[in-house]
Amino acid sequence: MQLTLEFGGGLELLCDSVKIHSIDVDLPAEEKKLTMKHLLAWVRSNLIKERPEMFMKGDTVRPGVLVLVNDCDWELSGQLDTTLENKDVVVFISTLHGG
Amino acid sequence: MESNGGVDESTRLLKELQSLKDSKRDIEARISALEGQLRQIQSNQQLNKKASSDCSNGGSEFGHDLTPDMIYRYSRQLLLPSFGVQGQSNLLKSSILVIGAGGLGSPALLYLAACGVGEVSALFIVDFEICRLGMVDHDVVELNNLHRQIIHGEAYIGRSKVESAAAACRSINSTIEIIEHREALRTSNALEIVSKYDIVIDATDNAPSRYLISDCCVLLGKPLVSGAALGLEGQLAVYNYNGGPCYRCLFPTPPPTTACQRCSDSGVLGVVPGVIGCLQALEAIKVASLVGEPLSGRMLLFDALSARIRIVKIRGRSLQCEACGENATMTQENFQHFDYEKFTQSPLSPAPLKLKLLKEDCRISSKEYEEVVKKGDAHVLIDVRPSQHYKIVSLPNSMNVPLASLEDKLPEIESALKSIDNGNAGVYVVCRRGNDSQRAVELLHNKGFVSAKDIVGGLESWARDVDHRFPTY
Ligand SMILES: [Zn+2]
Description:
heterodimer; A: two-stranded antiparallel ribbon; B: alpha/beta; Oxidized Rhodanese, domain 1; ubl conjugation pathway (chain A); Urm1 (chain A); protein tag activity (chain A); tRNA processing (chain A)
């Protein structure tokens, strides 16, 4: 399944300072759909190059990270249970505090 | 002799120029304050006259309460069909609190003063950076602020940011009321200050302030226009407005402190907070004048480098929210005792952290290091700052090994030491302020470099105590 992932607010520093990643993820064995839970595990083992604790806490994202599936907060689509479709755009953004 | 005379003469001229500039600035500030008072009186007289004539003929002269001066000053806004007389009248009756007079607050304040917020009531400024807990030099305009904090000028370096911002706003619009709060917003004064305003703009630069301000706005029912910027990115949202979420609904748990970078460490391109600050002014104007669709329930994400603006839909008000949910525990009473610094594990004051990890005999002062250099003692100096810091300025003969890659680069340090024929060469570690250098020395000790010492206070102490011409940033 083809997806576009974007990292922002400093999270791109965890994946070689690359903000936009076009990826191809296989469905997990014996599963019919890809969920955000699967995707997070995939991102953690395939894209995050350093300090994984700056991206995840337990099996979800750390506090202060917003997850947007097709420009929509994942709280509105079921968080970890959100089902992803081909060509979806998933954005991970760390909240900023500077000014 | 002659050249010495020239030096004396230029020193004298510089002094005289400075003192004349100071007097000029004070006089200008007094003139604009008096002009403001005069306009206020005239405007009140006009209103009173109009009010009495309204009573006699049962309606205002033009069907609105704008004076001729106001009509002329704000005419370009009055001409706008979607804003017009009604929008301007609403704006003039509103009051806005801008918390922070830095990179975000600078353009926000300038536009709000110019467009006529609170002509009759007030435009208010609180400078959050003035923190009693912090060091006193954080409450003033510094040279390295000017690239982004465009409300301040060179003449105000060393003076209060609030004073500087207020003078700039008065010079643009002497007819509005500007209130200066030269104090930090704390749980003890926030409710009282915020309650006097209709709308709040969060233009601060740290996590605890953002929670404190949001909770305070929820308790008092004030819309909150929240902006943030760092590096080449910015974020903007309107919270606690029209049934929309508050900051806590979105971020119930604070991020780890390592995720809270500051402009003073990570850098920021001046125009980026400028863009976000302008958008904050715009959203506040929309809320105040009751026009358009404020950015509530949505968030704007700005990426300057790729020229992308993304507007995303965010969650609604959370029923579980501690501040605004159904069983919210945050009351005015609890708010006043809530420890936001403990909650976020980071300080409200921008005073830099001063770690003390090492024993005294594992550290040397910058002056002692100067002796090492002068005596020609064999040593290796490791600078553990990130490479972009190292490129700005560094000490001669130092090797740059950023802290993050120190563990991988130990063989390089090993071979650098071996290349010095004296087997007992010292290892000194330096960074910007003397925190990372201690972390690095701890790591080096654990890896067998037992003689490693750090330079107390880092390059800042070198510049202060040894070489005054050494650049700081
Ligand atoms: Zn809430």
